[in-house]
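User: Predict the complex with pyridoxal-5'-phosphate.
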Amino acid sequence: MLTDRQPRVSMAHLPTPLEPLPRLTAALGGPQLWVKRDDQTGLATGGNKTRKLEFLVAEALAQGADTLVTCGAGQSNHARQTAAAAARFGFRCTLVLRGPRPAASQGNLLLDRLLGAEIAWAEDVAVDERLEKVMAELGERGRRPYLIPYGGSNPVGATGYVAAMEELLAQCAQRGLGFDGIVLASSSGGTQAGLVLAARARRYAGRVLGISVALPAEQLRRDLAELASATAAHLGIGIGFAEDDFDVDDSYLGGGYGVVSSLEREAVRTAARSEGLLLDPVYTGRAFGGLMDLIRRGVFAAQERLVFWHTGGVASLFAHPDI
Ligand SMILES: Cc1ncc(COP(=O)(O)O)c(C=O)c1O
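Assistant: Here is the predicted structure with pyridoxal-5'-phosphate placed in the model:
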């Protein structure tokens, strides 16, 4: 395995299931759709951050940290999973969240509080600025904070998705399956960068298509190339990446990050009602909505086999009664 020598704690429920979606496939008239259930990774309702946190928490423990610190949007899934990992491994946790404190604690925010995280609202300053201040304050109070970047997307975190791609390829080999492509929601890039790095190292020939949920494609591709190259260096794999190595579609950004429209609503309802599969309105709903649109526009042939990589986020449904 490409990641065998990396320090890692065990908290994810692995391998996550790889399941066919026959009713969705029939409803959309092909391609053959499957789902990789990383909404079932465990850790306080699951999601992609569990895989990243296995490596990040190991580094925090090695450094003798006593507090995990991270940042994100008010409904950040990453923040909620970091709070859960902190509780699980005996750290304290401080979350720096964007914007003002909302009137009610719903969805992920409810869970952040339940999991015991301290929350610092950025209010009207930039999250990075508030984060810097929080790190300094924790140091002054004699704490040993370990900073996890936005989305857990640094080379240590992205290592989780290098291992995840190898897991998928092993499942395929065991079951005699092959896939023409993988489709996923892409934001801070750690998930897609890790998958593409392992795909290249293991000579997987299919597409790895990231549906951007926040950034213009040009910017996301730049971030992905930088992160995948740094992750390869971290793992001692002699591969460098350029922007063109990443397949990104930013056609579904709509009103911007987290702005729910008919695209996400239709995707969330369709998956729920045809397969009993819950998607979230911000990430997987947008990515699956994009995939449904690409299918309707004939981008994929009916006999192709695709994996939709479910990256979690379901807790945020409870902050979106409008869905
Ligand atoms: C549910 C969900 N899906 C996908 C993503 C995107 O993953 P990445 O930030 O690694 O691109 C996130 C990130 O926060 C997420 O919470």
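The beta strands are 18-20, 32-37, 67-72, 92-97, 118-121, 145-147, 181-186, 207-212, 247-249, 305-310.
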